[in-house]
Design brief:
The structure holds two protein chains of two kinds. Chain A is of the alpha/beta class. Chain A contains 23 helices and 22 strands. Classes of the chains: A alpha/beta, B alpha+beta. At the A-B interface, strand 7 of A face helix 1, helix 2 and helix 5 of B.
Chain lengths: 579, 177
């Protein structure tokens, strides 16, 4: 047995030379070395040295001044999701840092790579309840993949190198580095080496080919195989491998809200959306498939409904990078641990070309039922009242489906995700796991800055919009071409729908007496329009989509429209209701 | 599935805050930690957590995976009662003048396989290693002499496997070198 002498905790690759600089300057130089050219944030006392240093490097790093740290954190998420790079956000100690927490929690549950750097009171004051001191490390621990407090300037390079590596590698996630003010002022011999591994951390599990064989055997013998795909396909950049796999096997594939856009909407094997407000067939037939193949998804309860009534008849194959997800919610027959790209490449080699026409027809039959009972009326309402679905339909027509859709949380989110037609990946940005109202507008700002060549449409409701609408100022200041579509039903629509269906129509605190959103948008110097009737809807959307720059369009939609189908809370997926 | 006693073992880096990160996993699921001990392991620079819980095996499996998922955890595993050799340590402080019948206390201490750690003018301290029921049995007998202070350590345990998790930790460290 060989001995291992006190090993280095991280392995590194060398990139630069030693130089004496301040910790604050080191932070900024590291951001540049990590390829960061855009950061979101909000200055304040304890992070001022870093901001002072940013002033010297304005040519290389553009700092976007959000109007609230929560906005900065969601913008960093939107940026990361649109362009695939790590989103960066900066905040001061105390309230600055606590305002980031919602964004961190959102990024944690939706596996978004974000690095947050917070200022902290001087190390001599730690624990003394100093001005703007909070235990940011303690508070952020449950909602970060990793976090670390720096109290000496010399620690900065290693801490940030590790932060970037951990945020983007393996199953991505948010990390937070808290830097005391004296560490920012202090000096160090600067020598930055990127982190490429951490000894206690396995980036991705090594692929076990015997598991691939077992999975292929199950798939090759399946009569009614069914694929559920999630964001893992997008995060692993495995869209191509995924498509090759499903086309070879001919297996119907349904998406989770986080997997949306990984496969184009019109693909013949794309059978639609899973979950509470997903499509009829994908939910119903979950309980009829014989082999269920989950790829880069985590069986969230919004997808599975009541677990005791979920796919009990099926053998389950789970392709997953995070071992902690295996058997967490649904018991697997074969677990294939690893990166989706590698797993799918190997699996495709072993599966036989196949088609499942009869089985696929079952999905089409369900679609027909859903079209007749739900979709047709939603997209082409006979009533005079405008529906959310028809607005989305017209947007599809005008953009051709190559825009980035950013949604907030609620009914509009479900409708937009259900009906938007996507033609390319990384085009759907939403708060899936946490369900964060207020996510949409700042995330759209981040997306517009992260993918400036694409049209970014933020679809928001009147509830969530009012949680972070101050970021209209950031949109104005950065000239980000965010198109904000407010679907205004003067209600907290999703909660109201539940009150209608499950609480005897007792509309407790869900009606909104709203401000004049037109005046608000105008106050932020953003061109606006408002539609209340159908005859001018199409022209208004045309203008909205084609306007070169930010735009605010408000559409007054049915106050008491509901989103169907629906798997009621506590019910099984097969108990999905069409009305 | 029935709840039973489990010992969870984790080999970790010795970093500030990791204790919190690990206990959060229990807090999130509202699992009571019966005892938690950290110490150095057989390997220099690597720490070891020993956590005692009474839970279903299914839940313990999930928790262990979530512990191992933490960046600074090298390896985590769990054992049933029969799969470990375990021990706890208890200290009993009694006033010297309450031991009116010193011989009797000495007999109790001897019978329980305990020992006097120190005998001072004001007080004595008795030490007993063993299972909870054993340290509790001694407590019950000593109660009549008015126990001034009592403390019991968390469980420590080593596995009955030939190598245990330590071997896997070693392999992990060798690979990462």
């Amino acid at each position: 047995m060989g001995t291992v002498e006190a090993p280095e905790q991280t392995s590194k690759s060398k990139t630069s030379n030693t130089e004496r600089i301040t910790g604050a300057e080191a932070v900024v130089r590291i951001l540049i070395e990590e390829g960061v050219d855009l950061a979101f944030g909000y200055p304040g006392g304890a992070i001022m040295p870093v901001y002072d240093s940013l002033y010297d490097y304005q040519e290389k790093i553009h700092h976007v001044l959000a109007r609230h740290e929560q906005g900065a954190s969601h913008a960093a998420q939107g940026y990361a999701r649109a362009c695939g790079k790590v989103g960066v956000c900066l905040a001061t100690s105390g309230p600055g840092a606590t305002n980031l927490i919602t964004g961190l929690a959102d990024a944690q549950i939706d596996s978004t790579p974000v690095v947050c750097i917070t200022g902290q009171v001087a190390s001599s004051l730690l624990g003394s309840d100093a001005f703007q001191e909070t235990d940011v490390i303690g508070i952020s621990m449950p909602v970060t993949k990793w976090n670390y407090q720096v109290t000496r300037a010399e620690e900065i390079p290693d801490a940030l190198a590790k932060a970037f590596y951990l945020a983007r590698s393996g199953r991505p996630g948010p990390v937070l580095v808290d830097i005391t003010k004296d560490a920012q002022f202090g000096e160090l011999d600067f020598d930055y080496i990127k982190c490429t591994s951490v000894r206690s951390y396995i980036e991705k599990p090594k692929l076990d080919l015997s598991k691939i064989e077992e999975a292929a055997e199950l798939i090759n013998n399946a009569e009614r195989p069914y694929i559920l795909f999630g964001q893992g396909v997008i995060l692993a950049q495995a869209e191509k491998e995924f498509k090759t796999f499903i086309e070879k096997t001919g297996i119907p594939s349904a998406w989770t809200i986080m997997g949306l856009s990984a496969l184009e909407t019109d693909h013949p094997l794309n059978v639609g959306m899973l979950g509470m407000h997903g499509n009829y067939g994908p939910n119903l037939l979950t309980n009829e498939c014989d082999v269920l193949i989950a790829i880069g998804m985590r069986f969230d309860d919004r997808v599975t409904g009541n677990l005791s009534k979920y796919a009990k008849q099926a053998k389950v194959i789970h392709l997953e990078i995070d071992p902690a997800e295996i058997d967490k919610n649904v018991k697997t027959t074969v677990a294939v641990l690893g990166d989706a790209k590698e797993s799918l490449t190997e699996l495709t080699k072993l599966v036989k070309p196949n088609s499942h026409e009869e089985w696929l027809q079952r999905f089409r039959d369900c679609d027909k039922q859903e079209w007749e009972k739900v979709i047709d009326e939603e997209l082409h309402p006979k009533s005079e009242i405008l529906s959310m679905g028809e607005v989305i339909r017209i947007i599809n027509d005008k953009t051709g489906g190559d825009h980035i859709l950013v949604t907030d949380v609620g009914q509009h989110q479900m409708v937009a995700c259900r009906y938007t037609k996507f033609t390319q990946s990384k085009s759907n940005i939403t708060s899936g796991g946490l369900g964060t109202m207020g996510f949409g507008l700042p995330a759209a700002l981040g997306a517009a800055l992260g993918a400036p060549e694409r049209t970014v449409i933020a679809v928001v409701g009147d509830g969530g919009f009012q949680m972070t609408l101050q970021e209209l100022a950031t949109i104005y200041q950065t000239k980000a071409k965010v198109k904000v579509l407010l679907l205004n039903n003067e209600f907290l629509g999703m909660v109201r729908q539940w009150q209608q269906l499950f609480f005897d129509k007792r509309y407790s605190s869900t009606e909104m007496i709203n401000p004049d959103f037109q005046t608000i948008a105008k106050g932020f110097y953003i061109p606006t329009n408002k539609v209340t009737e159908r005859y001018n809807l199409e022209a208004a959307i045309e203008e909205f989509v084609n306007h070169d720059g930010a735009y605010f369009l408000e559409v007054m939609v049915g106050k008491e429209n509901n989103v169907f189908p629906m798997v009621p809370s506590g019910s099984g997926v097969a108990e999905i209701r069409l009305e | 599935m029935d709840k039973q006693e489990f010992t969870i073992t984790a080999y970790t880096e010795n970093h500030v805050g990791l204790l919190h990160r690990i206990t959060i996993i229990f807090t999130k699921r509202k699992i009571n930690i019966e005892s938690l001990t950290t110490s150095e392991s057989e390997r220099e620079g690597i720490h070891r957590f020993t956590i005692a819980v009474t839970e279903t095996e299914e839940l313990v499996q999930k928790v262990v995976k979530q512990i191992e998922k933490q960046v600074e955890v090298l390896k985590a595993g769990y054992y049933k009662k029969k799969e470990v050799v375990q021990q706890e340590l208890a200290l009993y402080k009694l006033r010297t003048d309450s031991l009116t019948n010193g011989l009797e206390v000495e007999r109790i201490v001897r019978e329980h396989g305990a020992r006097f750690l120190t005998i001072e003018k004001e007080f004595v301290v008795i030490e007993k290693a063993g299972f909870k029921r054993e340290t509790k049995a001694l407590f019950d007998e000593l109660k009549q002499y008015d126990i001034v202070e009592f403390v019991r350590s968390g469980r420590i345990a080593v596995s009955r496997e030939q190598y245990g998790l330590g071997k896997q930790v070693e392999e992990l460290l060798t690979v990462s070198q």
